[in-house]
Design brief:
By secondary structure, this protein is of the alpha/beta class. 41% of the residues lie in helices and 15% in strands. The protein has 3 domains: 8-51, lambda repressor-like DNA-binding domains (434 Repressor (Amino-terminal Domain), Orthogonal Bundle), CATH 1.10.260.40; 63-159 and 290-317, Rossmann fold; 161-288, Response regulator (Rossmann fold, 3-Layer(aba) Sandwich), CATH 3.40.50.2300. The protein is built from 11 helices and 12 strands. One of its GO terms (molecular function) is transcription cis-regulatory region binding.
């Protein structure tokens, strides 16, 4: 038989105080006498009282929850970023409600509207939808991460995707490579478009081969990255180096090069990943540190919840070239 639910009234009676005072102590209000606070907390422990988050939300008008809308929790980048946001939010007494959209704009619109209807305290979105005008009057702070929202002047935490791609190509050109292949995702995402443009810009600036046959786009999975690499290596004049523009593709690119015994092909990947530093050769990466993005996003949201205004609306985090061997190889001579 289930025990009856312990009410706030029960705590107040055991502590010989009012329900209002008990509520203030449970919610962290310091303006209560120490003796009274100790009695109330002892009653909470003795009775096993747990506050009802739904009732609390109704009283406050908002939930103690952050909404987080991402592409997929299975993506290493978003998994890392999400873990950081969730850890920091829990430390602040906030919960995180995570929604994966699979880059489906209609699904994203649906889950964003649902989270707002639940009156979340704040909303963090990795945007894919074409229009965010309806968020201009959102009932909570809204922050965009990883990419800019199309047609909407929202607050953002980003990295320089274009600059990172240019840095990768510049590094490979410095090793003597003239034919640098590109493997990247679908063009419906701003980060993909920016990285491809950065690649193209730097290929021209470095006077490298700009043949269209060196570019493989629309590849969002490890299997697709592997297939793209096999296609590049099968060209009559294959690239001597490859730039992989997202982590999921990179896993397939690395697998293909090892399976074909072509680790002599230089490689730079956008985004670090597990085992990148233990492979032979180690994988050179443009590290965009999703944990740092998550930390800045979480701290920015905490500031907005506290009523602090932003010093800068758009935060651009630095990238870092991590040289491990694969990107430092000169063009191989194969007969």
């Amino acid at each position: 038989m289930n025990k009856p639910q312990v009410r706030l009234k029960d705590v107040a009676e055991l502590a010989a105080t009012s329900t209002k005072t008990a509520s203030r102590v449970i919610n962290g209000d310091p303006r209560v006498a120490e003796e009274t606070r100790v009695r109330i907390l002892a009653a909470v422990r003795e009775l096993g009282y747990r506050p009802d988050p739904t009732a609390r939300s109704l009283r406050k008008g908002t939930d103690d929850t952050l909404g987080l809308v991402i592409d997929s929790i299975a993506d290493p980048f978003f998994a890392n970023m999400t873990g950081t946001i969730e850890r920091l939010a829990i430390a602040r007494g906030l919960r995180v409600m995570i929604a994966s959209t699979g880059r489906d704009p209609r699904l994203e619109t649906t889950v964003v509207d649902d989270l707002l209807a639940r009156r979340v305290a704040g909303l963090i979105v990795a945007p894919t939808a074409p229009d965010y005008a309806h968020l201009a009057n959102a009932s909570c702070p809204v922050l965009f991460v990883d990419r800019r929202p199309e047609g909407f002047d929202g607050e953002t935490v980003l990295v320089d995707d274009n600059g990172g791609a240019r840095q990768a190509v510049t590094h490979l050109a410095a090793q003597g490579h003239q034919r640098v292949g590109y493997v990247g995702g679908k063009m419906d995402v701003a980060t993909t478009r920016s990285r491809l443009q950065g690649y193209r810009d730097q290929v021209q600036a470095s006077a490298l081969s700009d043949a269209d046959e060196l570019v493989r786009i629309g590849r969002n999975t490890a299997d697709e990255g592997r297939a793209a690499t096999e296609e590049l290596l099968a060209l009559p004049e294959p690239p001597t180096a490859i730039f992989s523009s997202n982590t999921r593709c990179s896993l397939g690119v690395v697998a293909a090069l090892h399976a074909c015994n072509r680790t002599d092909v230089a490689l730079v990947c956008f985004g670090d990943f597990g085992l990148a530093d233990v492979l032979q050769p180690g994988v050179t990466v443009i590290d965009h540190d999703p944990g740092a993005i998550g930390q800045v996003a979480a701290e920015t949201m905490f500031d907005r919840l506290a009523g602090k205004q932003p010093q800068e609306k758009n935060v651009m985090l630095p990238l870092r070239l991590v040289m491990r061997g694969s990107g430092e190889q000169p063009p191989a001579v194969r007969r």
